[in-house]
Amino acid sequence: MAHRFLASTPLLRTSLSLTARARAAVPAQYANYVTASAVVMAGGKAKKAAPKVKAQSNSFRKKKAADDDKGESGSGGATRLNEKYYKPSIPVKVEEFLPSTATKEHVGQVLGFPSTVVPALAQTAYPTLLNEQFELIKPAALVVRDSTVSFLEKVDEAMKTPSAQSRIVLTGEAGSGKSALLLQTVSHCLSAGWIVIYVPKATSWMNSSFAYNKVANTTSFVQPLLASNLVGQIQNVNKSILDKITTSETATVGRHEVEKGTKLSALLEVGVKDQFAAQDVMEVFMKEIGAQKDIPTLVAVDEVNSFFRPTQYLSQDGKELDPEHLKLSKLFLNYISGKSTFKHGAIVAATSDTLLANKSEVLDVALGVKEVSPYKRLSQTILPWTQGLTSVEVPNYTREEAKGVFDYYKKANIFFDAASEPLFLNKFITSNGNPRKFFTACAKGI
Amino acid sequence: MLRSFSRLGGISASRICFQQPTVARISIASFHMGSRPNAVSASTSTATSPSTPLPPPMAASIPKPDTPLPPTTANATSAQGTDAEPVTGASSGQLGAEEDKNTQDDAESAASAFAEFTPVSPEQARSLTQNPILSQLVNTIMKDGKKARAQRFVADALLEIRSRTQSDPYHVILDALELASPILKLTAIKKGSKVLQVPTPMTERQRRRKAIVWILEASDKRKGEKLFKDRLASEFLAVVNGNSGALVKKNQLHKMALANRANASLKY
User: Where are the stretches annotated Disordered (chain B) (predicted)?
Assistant: First the structure.
């Protein structure tokens, strides 16, 4: 866990493992140094190598026969695949999920992400468990639900209001469709022309997987590479829109000066090229898009519970840092808690039950999802950040929605049983309509 | 008293209470064979009762992997997308519109030597608990009574086969088990001082178990695939593609049996 220690060598810019980094750090003149034991070992190896070569040449045919069960088709190349079973994958035909199609009439239909939105969504990874489903059935598509329609209406209302008034957290039981609803919101806002900042795995910001440096004379820390990555993602997702907005004043970002009137895409480019300026770039960027009223902004954060619990980073004293001590997280926390606001926009977040260790009791209590004893001590440093969040519960599938998904799975050849009413009822009832369990029941039969 | 019983026939003391009469032995055997009260009654009359002779060797009835299955009337109409099966006629209109190639394939596989047992209802044809073949596979994989874990392995392996081949994994597994199963086993008997290997027939379940065990052993040798479900899926596909350690073992056993075919007529 080298990231836990304060370091900022150029090697940290790469994502090498500790051993690879150690190996790379050895200067060239020592890399080829030969010790006495190495010479002895080489002699022994040479003795072993000689008879081995002979044996290989004599029993060449036998060895090839033994190597036959490498892979399902064989290493020889002469074995063929059984044509009876290997068929080409045919993507399922689905309509596009657009603002015009996300209506009550389409509830129960599975609609795919529009072709304009897919490259933007490809900049960031899909949420982990949803990704498994998308890998299995191509193209990526989600069902339009009652909760989708009502939630998107809410988001559309937020288009003309400050973001501090629309800070929504999606809650619900595990596998009920929170991340999916968030993805649909992101797709909807991208199609509608919003600026979208989508963070699919906020946990990766807090689990010490990125290097961090202390800012002099403060208690805060920056994560240069993380900020640079985020800046690059925002730029790729919103490129055409950001060309229309320019900075309103000169700003100093790291070692660079950004003049007044620079396009925001050019500002973000600075952060992509210089990771140590990326944090300042993010702050200037958020201020600029918040100050303008023409284009609304959506900040979509998945696994938001990691923002409301201690991180896995350590301070110099060896104590766990809170998210507010990391500058990038604090920037987002300001918007989530309403301390900073976009003039037009919304903040939508989703909790995640994927890892029990990431659960935030403070957030659950603040949203009213969980009740604890009044004597229980909740973190007083994290609790203030949760004020004013509204909770929207995502329910399980209704029967109509589940029927639509069932038909879609059958079309996609996820299961090969006859698509009958008793089978559908079997899957729906045993999974209680929970989307994730319904998928498992259909795909795996357990 | 207990000691004298055990001296009589080598029956352990614990077994005394569980000695079954002849009638009940058949019912247990048919339980193993997978027949249910509602199932086709023909399955109960196969060679499980001791009075009927042993069935002939199965070699002739197993379809060879290279020859396609003979076309049936159901197959011929499947391309048109008609609902040949009464089951799907009963389903709701929006679901029943699609053609039922798979239930017709099920009818084909029912005709094959292995799938002679019909499950209770069509939606449970591929059920891990109700389908006798899949449940035998699950039970063979299960260790220490961890059934749910074994079911997960089989379900994940089936899904893996499906994602690699885009076709019904159940048929892949049926085919693989048929290909890998030996026809007979070699029983060692002592004639005088010599030990002779006698080829003896096996029941369906014994044959299938041998195939499963060999496939599991071959899958353990796979390197480069970390997860069990990936190794198992690769091994099933390797059997179906014609190169697997399980097939090698089957062919070796068949060769030995051919070599010792003279001993088959010996009585012991």
Answer: 36-111
Residue A243 backbone dihedrals phi, psi, to 5 degrees: -65, -20
pTM value is: 0.73
| Rounded distance between C-alpha atoms, residue A11 and residue A17, angstroms | 10
pLDDT tens string A122-131: 999 899 889 9
Kindly list the structural domains of chain B, giving each domain's residue range(s) and its CATH number in brackets, ordered by start.
1-51 (no CATH), 132-265 (1.10.455.10)
Closest chain B CA to residue A410: B95
Question: Looking at the partner chain, which of A71, A85, A420 has a beta carbon nearest the beta carbon of B91?
Answer: A420
Give the max Cα distance, chain B. 72
Answer whether B174's CB lies under 8 Å from A97's CB.
no
Dist CA B83 CA B89 (whole Å): 7
A320: β partners: A314
Between A11-15, A203-207, A411-415, A441-445, the lowest mean confidence (pLDDT) is in: A11-15
Comparing C-alpha atoms, which of B217, B224, B204, B225 is closest to residue B248?
B217
Q: How does A132-164 read in b/e, with b if 16+ C-beta sit within 10 Å?
A: ebbeebeebbbbbbebbeebbeebbebbebbbb
pLDDT of residue A154 exceeding 70, the answer is yes
Nearest by CB to B102, from A90, A403, A416: name it: A416
